[in-house]
TrEMBL record:
This is Adenine phosphoribosyltransferase. The gene is apt. The keyword Glycosyltransferase applies. Pathway: Purine metabolism; AMP biosynthesis via salvage pathway; AMP from adenine: step 1/1. It is found in: Cytoplasm. It holds the Pfam family Pribosyltran. It comes from the Bacteria. GO terms for molecular function: adenine binding; adenine phosphoribosyltransferase activity; AMP binding.
Length: 170
């Protein structure tokens, strides 16, 4: 199954000059979705995972599925002022501006094994911010995994000290 057939290109979203990779066709197809999930899980080869960190918002979809299959906790990382409890925060650059992410201060305990999941690795800004948040709380990153990597943006350079797995590379 070629999962690229389930990714739709949207020109000019969220702003002019960006070619957005829309994963909703993949989410809408239960067979393709399950196939993608199995690929993500196979990359972990039975590694112990205590928490799955998912980045708002598209990292939540497979992040929750991964946490469920791995019998792990799920940690939602959100944009500022979306989480109700005390948070830590990191700002980062992305391919079309800047943003910040927040995580609850009690989301990860020191020494917990963490899988970080997001839909796309682009410039690496979001991934670096996620790594910094996990490290601040004392978590040990086992792997980053992504549905897609836009390799021409060299995002993996920002997290090259970690294991990185992507299902689709552009």
């Amino acid at each position: 199954m070629n999962l690229k057939n389930y990714i739709r290109d949207i020109q000019g979203f969220p702003k002019e000059g960006i070619l957005f990779k829309d994963i909703t066709p993949l989410l809408n197809d239960p067979i393709a979705r399950e196939y993608c999930l199995e690929i993500l899980l196979s990359s972990l080869n039975g590694l112990k995972i205590d928490k799955v960190v998912g980045a708002e918002s598209r990292g939540f979809f497979f992040g929750m599925l991964l946490a469920d299959r791995l019998n792990a906790g799920f940690v939602p990382v959100r944009k500022p002022n979306k989480l109700p409890f005390k948070t830590i925060s990191r700002s980062y650059n992305l391919e079309y501006g800047t943003d910040s992410l927040e995580m609850h201060v009690d989301a990860i305990k020191k020494g917990e094994k963490v899988l970080i999941h997001d839909d796309v690795l682009a410039t690496g800004g979001t991934a670096r911010a996620l790594a910094d948040l996990v490290h601040e709380l004392g978590g040990e990153i086992v792997q980053f995994n992504f549905l897609m990597e836009l390799s021409f943006l060299n995002g993996r350079e920002k997290i090259k000290e970690h294991s990185i797995f992507t299902v689709i590379t552009y």
